[in-house]
Amino acid sequence: MKIGIIGGTFNPVHNAHLRIAEEVGEMFFLDRVVFIPSASPPHKPLAGELAFRQRFRMVELAIRDNPRFAVSDLEGQRGGKSYSVDTLRVLRAEHPDDEFFFIIGSDSFLEIGQWREYREIFSLCNIVAVERPGSRIPDPSAVLPVAIAGEFCYHGPEKRLAHRSGYSVYCCSGVPLAISSSSIRKLVRLDRSIRYLVPEAVAHFIKEHRLYKDAH
Q1: Which among 118, 116, 105 has a CA at the least distance from the CA of 171?
Q2: What CATH superfamily is the domain 2-177?
């Protein structure tokens, strides 16, 4: 199977997350796209201190009508800091015959050299970097960490970096939906509508549980 992996705090999950997953799923003919909420993000504190189970539930609600989408609590079960390399190792060990496509925003790809054991990530899966507003990647080879640049061969027409492991890095333009979880939390705090920014079921869950009223 060809499986997409999209991680994040999903605090909350919103329509840009879903649209990115949908587009990448179609573009690469993925059999499934799995959302993996982060239990304890390593690079920044979790705004609002929202429990993992609440964020997990919002993803469940958001994807329930899409048969291609699934959600995993792998990082919640594992505990500790949620490092992507650890998650990908587990997935590779549990599903050795599947091909994985790790979906990240272009802003995250530009910072991948700061990730834990980032070098190994390129040997575990394909990476799909989806351009986000304000974070274009005209030449992906130019933004690779210097320490690993020699491990890739750039195919310009495809905007693809072929890694010596056999996996590739793809850069996709995507739909530049300028939606962020932080802006949604701010709107909730100000008692403003978040309609059309998140699925209706997610908006109802946030309202019902009075989430983000004091979040920043």
Answers
A1: 105
A2: HUPs (3.40.50.620)
